[in-house]
Amino acid sequence: MKKAQTMKTKQWLAGLSLALAVLVAAPAMAADEHGHDHGAPAAADAPALPRFAAVSEAFELVGIVSGTHVALYLDRFEDNTPVKDARIELEIAGAKVAVEPHEGAYEATLAAPLQPGVIPVTATVVAGQESDILAADLDLHEEEHADEAQASAWRRYAPWAAALAVALVAIAWLGLRASRRARMGGAA
Hints:
It is built from two helices and nine strands. It is α+β, with helices and mostly antiparallel strands. It has two domains: 2-40 and 144-183, no CATH class; 51-140, Sandwich (Immunoglobulin-like), CATH 2.60.40. The chain has a five-stranded antiparallel β-sheet with strand order 1-2-3-7-6, with no helix packed on it. A hairpin with a 2-residue loop joins strand 6 and strand 7 (105-109). Helix 1 packs antiparallel against helix 2 (142-183). It starts with a helix and ends in a 5-residue tail after the last helix.
């Protein structure tokens, strides 16, 4: 009888160890499609903000739109150094927008949030003796961003849900097996 109790305890501990091992290994299953997470922190749940990029022989301009706020980053094309002393005239969807320098970059405020669709953007840049006109399109599609965020959230939680399911099945199986052995008097 004591031997049967010892075996049951060992089986229960083995099942518990298996369940814990599966739960500990679950984060490794959350790697990218190639099996790598590169030690990077998890991406934010929110979708990326809409952005545009315009390039010329002299400059690169990147704009990030968040509601009515537009953050602008202007760099020299050849060496990617920030251009901090430029004057930028910005036109988005046919409307002129005032641009002000702000902490090494530039920012603008739109009169109203932009409507979904492909929106033309034109920037006239004057920096010292150089001047250039840059053009880009801002592609706004709210529905796609929302769908991507939902898919991303599901992919992040799926490995944990699978690990929990495997652990619960393993514990239930070991419990059933132990109870059958107990009813049969310890015989296999």
